[in-house]
Amino acid sequence: MNKSGKYFVSILVKSEDEAVEITKRKIGIDLGISDFAITTNDLGEIEKHKNPKQLYKAEKQLKKAQRSLSRKQKGGKNRSKARLQVAKKHEKIANQRKDFLDKLTKKITDENQVIVIETLSTQNLMKNHKLAKSIGDAGWYEFVRQLEYKAEQKGRTIIKADRFYPSSQICSACGHRDGKKPLHIREWECPNCGEYLDRDINASKNLLALAK
Ligand SMILES: [Zn+2]
What is the distance in A from the centroid of ligand 1 to the CA of 169? Predict the structure, then answer.
C-alpha cells in the first residue's frame, strides 16, 4: 500500500522483446530549460517537447495542499486528512510525469536507430535549478532510464556525449567554436558564418552530429 492508500500487486512474467524494424533514422536530444527536450533528427526535423501543462497545475495544487497541512495541529484528525491530500497530489504529479516520459521515450525509440543524448552531470542539472526544480530533476533521470531500457529492448543504440562536450559552444552550421555563453543567452549569430542559432536546437544538432 502506498502513502495515498492505494494497493498494488506486481506480477513477474517472461516474454520476448518486442520486434521492431531497423531504421536509418538518427536523433540528437538536448534536455532543455523552457522545453523538456529538443530533438533534431537526420532529416532535419526539429521538435520541442514541452512539459505537460497539467504538470504545472498539479504542482500548484501540491503547494496549496502542503500549506494547508502546515497549518493543521499536530496529532489532530484534520492533520492526517491533510497529509493524505499531500500524498495524493504527489502521486498525481508522479503519474503525469511518468505518462509523459513513457510516451516520449516510446516515440523516440520507435522511430530512431541511433539516439544521442547528453551525459547528465551536476553541471547540466544546475541549469535546471533556475526553473521548476522538482519537474526537471526527477524527469531527466527517469527520461534517460526509460530511454535506455526501451532502446535495449528494441535493439537501438544510445550514444552519450562526453560530459565536457561543448554542445552549446559549437556552431552546428560551420563548426566554429565560440566561448562559453551564460544561460540567459538563448540565441546568437555565429561570428564565423553568420548563421542564426537557437541555443537548444543548436545543441541538439551538435549532439546528432555525434551519431556516426
Ligand atoms: Zn557558424
Answer: 10
